[in-house]
Design brief:
Distance between the termini: 13 Å
Strand content: 15-25%
Oligomer: single chain
CATH topology of the largest domain: Naphthalene 1,2-dioxygenase Alpha Subunit, Chain A, domain 1
Number of domains: 2
Largest sheet: 9 strands, antiparallel
Radius of gyration: 23 Å
Shape: globular
Structural class: alpha+beta
CATH architecture of the largest domain: Alpha-Beta Complex
């Protein structure tokens, strides 16, 4: 039903998208086959594989892959599959394999760049032409890999859009997050918080730039916290504890979010918080600004800290928060099932208090035991269930819609526009239909 480019493209009609993009198992299969193969997808951070032989097992779409540090210091991304019988090479999430990978089934071994190293009883393959076959060449590498300031991205497809063309100026959000480190380096701080959602992965991606829901959906959590704080009767300018600094901005009025602005870039990338964000008024950490000035100079330090972008979406499935050093990846498991992993990063050379605030934010907002995250989860799951109703087939994304919108250029608009959602679906069609039959 959805095997041609035309049938896929028909699911997106400017101001509306068909419910099948969220509910159809066939559309989901096509996403795994085309979208996650043609786009550049986040794999991991280089600090997860710091030494030769270090590996990190993850997935791109439904494809199991391994990020590994090769003996030459380069980060490689290989399919997690033995070319012999297809056995997964590693099952641990991460570790160190030493100088080579060894298949646990028949002991074929491979260098950490995937090249075949040795086969037991190799004489059994003499004269068979094994060396001319794909299996004889070793573990297959993905189509392309790019390490951008420590963030490792891959494109499964052998040919396609280049890294710089895919991301363009959107990389400025990664630049800002890395530049917040006095040493210009980030390190993953511990394992991620993991949270299963019974909904389509695109709902979570869309929600990252949905600024009309916080004061509504989070009234029961953030709203209650703000109410209790006010009941203490403290002066308006009384210092707030870190937890209140984090949660109170979720109850900002519509005008706050309208004025913050949304910026969109080509290929589905965009961010909220052009002018200010919910992270703008955190209390300064003693010694941090001075450390940044010493490393970057005062002018650059001020410019770095003046940027307080809220959520930057990197299409198709990650979001980063530069001011709070966080990355969330939305891992598609099925049309109605998504695993969310929320990572935090240490700003190398910065005071530990910054990491403590980042960890607090992650626990309060994104953990399975969070205060705020359950509000979103309930909305996603209600939407997933509601889309099965036959009353309407189309989902509306019309807020501040304009005819003939151009998604191939950068734009800055009202902070409550749904343009970024439309931008994502424009990119969705583009990468879903690359090379597909009409």
């Amino acid at each position: 039903m959805y095997e041609t480019a035309d049938s896929i493209a028909a699911l997106v009609q400017g101001r509306q998208v068909h419910r099948d993009v969220y509910t159809s198992p066939e559309v989901f299969r096509q996403e795994m086959k085309h979208l996650f193969a043609n786009a550049w997808v986040f794999v991991g951070h280089e600090s997860q594989t710091p030494k030769p032989g270090d590996y990190f097992a993850t997935s791109i779409g439904d494809q199991p892959v391994i990020q590994v540090r090769h003996s030459d210091g380069e980060v490689k991304v290989l399919y997690n599959r033995c070319p012999h019988k297809g056995t997964k090479i590693v099952i641990d999430r991460q570790g160190n394999t030493g100088k080579f990978f060894r298949c646990p089934y028949h002991a074929w071994s491979f260098k950490t760049d995937g090249c075949l190293l040795a086969i037991p009883l190799k004489k059994g393959y003499e004269g068979t032409g094994l060396e001319q076959t794909p299996a004889g060449k070793g573990m297959k590498a993905v189509g392309a890999v790019h390490n951008y300031r420590g963030f490792v991205f891959a494109r499964l497809a052998e040919a396609g859009i280049g890294f710089d063309d895919f991301f363009g100026d959107s990389l400025s959000s990664i630049d800002n997050m890395v530049d917040r480190s006095p040493e210009g380096r980030l390190e993953v701080a511990g394992p991620p918080l993991r949270y299963l959602h019974h909904c389509n992965w695109k709902m979570l991606v869309e929600n990252q730039t949905d600024t009309c829901h916080p004061m509504v959906a989070h009234e029961s959590s953030a709203g209650t916290a703000v109410k209790l704080w006010k009941e203490l009767g403290l002066p308006e300018d009384a210092p707030k504890p870190p937890a209140m600094e984090i949660i109170a901005p979720f109850m900002s009025p519509y005008e706050f979010f309208e004025n913050m602005g949304i910026r969109t870039w080509p290929n589905g990338h965009g961010h909220t918080g052009v002018h200010h964000s919910i992270h703008s008024n955190y209390t300064a950490i003693p010694g941090y600004y001075e450390a940044l000035c010493k490393s970057h100079g005062e002018e650059k330090a001020k410019a770095v800290l003046a940027e307080n972008r809220h959520n930057t979406v990197y299409f198709p499935n990650i979001m980063i928060k530069g001011p709070i050093q966080q990355l969330r990846i939305f891992i598609p498991l099925a049309a109605n099932r998504t695993l969310v992993e929320s990572y935090i990063y240490r700003l190398v050379g910065a005071p530990d208090e910054l990491l403590a605030r980042t960890a607090m934010y992650n626990r309060m907002i994104n953990a399975p035991t969070s205060i705020v995250g359950h509000d979103d989860l309930e909305m996603y799951e209600r939407a997933q269930e509601g889309l099965e109703a036959d009353g309407l087939e189309w989902v509306n994304v019309q807020r501040l819609y304009e005819e003939d919108e151009d998604f191939e250029t950068e734009a800055v608009e009202n902070g409550t526009t749904e343009r970024q959602m439309r931008n994502q679906f424009h990119a969705w069609v583009k990468f879903m239909t690359m090379g597909a039959a009409r």
